[in-house]
Task: inverse folding
């Protein structure tokens, strides 16, 4: 039991407090207690259900005043009466951490959804997060007499071919000494693996399983440096223009239908991470079903193993209880911290953090707190900032590094980015991937607005040094140059729209079409095409250099029709190039075609355009 | 339902709620307040606050309150079929009360890992849906419509053409005329043996309509889960449902969020819409809803929250060139169409769909050009001619075609008006499907 758990004055956890329900509003109970309770302590409401008989509904203390504890129940409160008993547990809301979590599908409270019987989730349904009797091969990493601290690696195992380190309890205070450790062999997850002793002679038995309260960050590292390594996603508008870093934070706001979920799914499939945790928080159940169906089939592009083997899904869909939705993002983050402490690189995705914020709003509303903007709680911005702050790269005591990269989606009400959740998230994150309705409407996917979006990491000297050494010595310069092409293009577009094709200098048309070329060749990407959906970094660098070379060159054009004809042909060629598998014959052919088009234009030959090119107008991908 | 003790000490009366002193009452339990149905919405010691569905007009402070010991429920079974009920599940068609197993409404949610991915196409004969925004069993999708658009008529057409085993109509704030219209259309189509209706009309108290979707969905779950049937649920009008939510929230002194809607609007709507599901043993619930807009404003909290929940949305529009109502090909979206088009339909479906919509968009640009007094090119003229044929012979909601005929018709129009290179369709498809000699 974690030390953060509430302990009563006498130090015992025996005779935990019981209380009696005094009032009910929706899922909030007022519970009369005459013994101590703790803020965020878990209680179980003892309910006689009409169909199921006696059941226990889990709830959490979120406020206390004058002998009345306000308990939010993670389930329907139907049928609960005044006088119903509530048993408090002396624990905070905790997750179970240990081997056997990979490829599991949990609800927001870490119940294993596959282990719950029946088509419907009857209220009060609970199941174990992992199997305590499963056997694992372990190898000790410490010896008797070694000094250990919280989160140190005691032993090593393997799960789905990923290293799984057995951590010293995360709540250890100060230095402890290993008194016994098992030898190499197989043990059950719940069996004693080591015994630790501290300076005061207290001993502690350690297994592969431990528990941790979700709302308290794990802080068993020695340093938290700024991120510096690119998190490769294969999504060009990210990797080439707005890089996300390992241990970084970012968010994707966008109105409905702008492709948030498609983009998040693409990132979760392709990103270069050891572990991917997807928190489906208050979103459509069918979207989670898509992950359930696809991930066990899809190959991890880097290891060739099934994607599901490195994935944990926390599914708290929009129709599941609101309080559990609030918990779900914390559950996901805590599981991420556990793997980070093992020295792994975790990618955490939450879709959507707005639903989490709405859950906070519903609770604060029932507590009759004075509301902030749009009726959200006053501390919304602080809550969001604290949560994002749990991501990051850490240096462990053994010098190894682990990372949590966190990307959340935001569903702004009415598509308006000036609403509280978007604004608070913008302050808390370093990367901003704004999805634009306009781009989505014209089927330019991913609909990431290249001008509004940004990655603050482009200003990090740590990253620039990394990029220079590992990507290209001109990486940041190229990103800035591309942004400039896009900016000038959009200015030119405005002028053309106002003054007409004939009313602007030819140069405006050139600028506009350079922007279009960059947009179609690099920004737009077909998430449903096997090749185009994921572009390896080397190919991206190659593409960026090729496109920029063309953008830098001043060709002679007879008139604005000639400008559009040339760039349309180029765009078509680039798109064919994008669809061609890397280093295939087709790849070389399309590359040569591009070079030829450029050469001909340079030398003033007009290629005969009997067949007007239409491919450039085709939608890249569908909205869903 | 066993009756329990009667209480007569009403402590507080508001327009929609009353508070009575009582003991041993469960949350969400039903009660009769002077014969009016009411539901517990708040408990505080011995003070029980009830939401009186029929309104509190004429209640005395000593009106008897009788608790019924259970949440609202519905008797499910074959007796429901062909019948029309009010928001409480009582007959309004003169027939007897239904018998069958009593089920509490608003039951538990489907375990997401037990859901099947939706995979069965629903054909409606309307090209704006089948061709451009294909529906899939287990989907939830609303019509976003202005009050003056014929959404109920189109929805009734969809319901009659879709080959569903059961159609459950949930009417909220339906005008009496519209209620009669639905009944008459179902009767004259001879499909009453597939229909169940739960109707709250504008003549009924608005708060009652809060029960309608749960009644309809409880009936739907019975047919889909217990009998493995394909059930289509029609909910009209969800905007009036949300309005009723805001009335109650207001009476309960809740702090309103955007557009005076309760902060829980998203969860309240999601709880209903997420009842749409493809069940593992073959049954399914598909929800087609109506969300009326105020002058097309989709940023209002009701359509906005709905759009985040549902799997697409359908817009109706009058095509002024041909004077017909069409399903707007630009703003409408079915998020699940990818799961079926080109798989359960012909291979050319996705490309034909995209090409036709793109050419229709070109026509719309050409129209703007013409209106602004610019000269039209030959291509512009051809897109305009194409758009007229496309709207009149394919898109109009009164056209009834199967998907292959829609595709063939589209190819005919392509051949009439365009060169193959202008279509942007893969060459092998053009080879197979484009008529060699332009028809007509």
Result:
């Amino acid at each position: 039991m974690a030390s953060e758990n509430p302990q009563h004055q006498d130090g015992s956890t025996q005779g935990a407090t019981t209380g009696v329900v005094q009032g009910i509003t929706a899922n909030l109970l007022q519970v009369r207690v005459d013994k101590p309770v703790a803020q965020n302590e878990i209680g179980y409401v003892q309910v006689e259900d009409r169909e199921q008989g006696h059941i226990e509904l889990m709830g959490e203390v979120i406020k206390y005043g004058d002998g009345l504890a306000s308990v939010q129940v993670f389930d329907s409160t139907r049928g609960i009466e005044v006088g119903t008993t509530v048993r408090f547990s002396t624990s905070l809301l905790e997750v179970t951490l240990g081997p056997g979590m990979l490829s599991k599908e949990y609800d927001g409270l870490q119940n294993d959804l596959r282990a719950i019987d029946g088509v419907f989730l009857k209220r009060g349904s609970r199941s174990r997060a992992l199997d305590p009797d499963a056997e694992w091969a372990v190898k000790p990493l410490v010896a008797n007499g070694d000094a250990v601290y919280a989160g140190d690696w005691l032993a090593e195992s393997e799960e789905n071919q990923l290293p799984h380190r057995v951590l010293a309890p995360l709540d250890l205070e100060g230095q402890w000494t290993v008194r016994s450790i098992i030898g190499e062999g197989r043990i059950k997850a719940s069996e004693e693996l080591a015994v630790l002793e501290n300076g005061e002679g207290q001993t502690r038995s350690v297994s592969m399983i431990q528990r941790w309260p979700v709302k308290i960050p794990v802080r068993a590292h020695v340093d938290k440096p700024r991120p510096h390594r690119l998190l490769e996603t294969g999504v060009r508008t990210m990797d080439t223009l707005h890089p996300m870093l390992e241990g970084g934070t970012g968010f994707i706001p966008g109105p409905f239908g702008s492709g948030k979920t498609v983009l998040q799914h693409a990132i979760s499939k392709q990103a270069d991470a050891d572990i991917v945790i997807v928190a489906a928080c208050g979103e459509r159940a069918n979207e989670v079903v898509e992950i359930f169906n696809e991930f066990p089939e899809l190959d991890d592009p880097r290891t060739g193993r099934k994607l599901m083997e490195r994935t944990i899904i926390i599914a708290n869909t929009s129709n599941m209880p609101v309080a559990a939705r609030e918990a779900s993002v914390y559950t996901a983050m805590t599981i991420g911290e556990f793997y980070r402490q093992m020295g792994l690189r975790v990618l955490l995705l939450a879709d959507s953090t707005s639903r989490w914020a709405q859950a906070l709003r519903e609770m604060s509303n029932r507590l009759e707190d004075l509301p902030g903007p749009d009726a959200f709680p006053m501390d919304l911005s602080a809550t969001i900032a604290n949560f994002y702050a749990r991501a990051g790269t850490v240096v462990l005591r053994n010098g190894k590094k682990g990372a949590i990269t966190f990307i959340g989606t935001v569903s702004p009400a009415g598509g308006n980015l000036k609403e509280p959740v978007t604004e608070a998230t913008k302050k808390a994150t370093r990367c901003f991937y704004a999805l634009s309705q306009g781009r989505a409407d014209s089927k330019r996917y991913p609909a990431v607005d290249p001008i509004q979006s940004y990655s603050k990491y482009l200003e990090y000297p740590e990253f620039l040094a990394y990029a220079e050494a590992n990507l290209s010595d001109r990486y940041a310069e190229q990103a800035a140059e591309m942004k400039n092409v896009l900016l000038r293009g959009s200015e030119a577009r405005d002028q053309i729209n106002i003054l007409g094709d004939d009313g602007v200098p030819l140069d405006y048309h050139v600028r506009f079409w350079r922007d279009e070329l960059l947009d179609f060749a690099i920004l737009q990407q077909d998430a449903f095409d096997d090749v185009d959906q994921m572009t390896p970094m080397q190919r991206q660098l190659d593409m960026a250099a090729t496109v920029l070379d063309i953008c830098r060159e001043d060709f002679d054009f007879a008139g604005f029709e000639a400008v559009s004809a040339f760039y349309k042909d180029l765009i078509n060629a680039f798109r064919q190039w994008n669809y061609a598998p890397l280093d295939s014959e087709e790849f070389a052919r399309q590359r040569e075609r591009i070079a030829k088009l450029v050469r001909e234009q340079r030398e003033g030959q007009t290629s005969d355009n009997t067949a007007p090119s239409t491919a450039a107008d085709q939608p890249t991908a569908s909205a869903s | 339902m066993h009756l329990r003790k009667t209480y007569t000490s009403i402590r507080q009366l508001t327009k929609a709620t009353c508070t009575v002193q009582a003991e041993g009452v469960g949350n969400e339990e039903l009660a009769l307040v002077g014969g009016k149905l009411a539901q517990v919405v708040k408990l505080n010691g011995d003070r029980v606050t009830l939401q009186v569905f029929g309104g509190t007009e004429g209640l005395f402070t000593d009106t008897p309150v009788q608790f019924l010991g259970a949440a609202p429920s519905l008797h499910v079974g074959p007796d429901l079929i062909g019948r029309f009920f009010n928001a409480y599940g009582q007959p309004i068609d003169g027939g007897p009360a239904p018998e069958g197993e009593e089920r509490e409404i608003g039951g538990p949610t489907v375990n997401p890992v037990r859901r099947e991915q939706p995979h069965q196409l629903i054909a409606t004969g309307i090209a704006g849906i089948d061709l451009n925004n294909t529906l899939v069993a287990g989907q939830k999708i609303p019509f976003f419509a202005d009050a003056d658009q014929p959404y109920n008529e189109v929805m009734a057409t969809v319901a009659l053409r879709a080959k569903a085993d059961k159609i459950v109509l949930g009417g909220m704030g339906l005008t009496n005329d519209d209620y009669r219209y639905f009944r008459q259309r179902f009767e004259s189509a001879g499909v009453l043996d597939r229909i169940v209706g739960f109707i709250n009309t504008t003549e009924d108290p608005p708060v009652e309509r809060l029960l309608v979707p749960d009644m309809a969905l409880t009936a739907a779950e019975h047919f889909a889960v217990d009998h493995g049937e394909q059930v289509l649920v029609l909910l009209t009008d969800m905007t009036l449902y949300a309005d009723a939510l805001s009335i109650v929230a207001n009476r309960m002194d809740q702090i309103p969020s955007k557009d005076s809607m309760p902060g829980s609007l998203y969860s309240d709507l999601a709880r209903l819409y997420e009842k749409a599901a493809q069940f593992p043993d073959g049954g399914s619930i598909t929800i087609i809803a109506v969300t009326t807009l105020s002058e097309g404003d989709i940023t209002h909290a009701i359509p906005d929250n709905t759009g985040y929940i549902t799997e697409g949305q359908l817009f109706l529009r009058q095509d002024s060139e041909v004077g017909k109502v069409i399903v707007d090909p630009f703003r409408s979206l079915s998020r699940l169409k990818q799961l079926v088009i080109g798989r359960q339909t012909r291979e050319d479906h996705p490309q034909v769909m995209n090409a036709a919509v793109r050419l229709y968009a070109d026509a719309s640009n050409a129209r703007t050009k013409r209106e602004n007094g610019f000269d039209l090119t030959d291509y512009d003229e051809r897109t305009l001619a194409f758009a007229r044929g496309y709207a009149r012979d394919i898109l109009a909601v009164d056209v009834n075609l199967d998907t292959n005929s829609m595709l063939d018709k589209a190819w005919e129009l392509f051949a009439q008006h365009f060169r193959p290179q202008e279509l942007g369709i893969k060459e092998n498809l053009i080879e197979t499907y484009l008529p060699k000699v332009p028809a007509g």
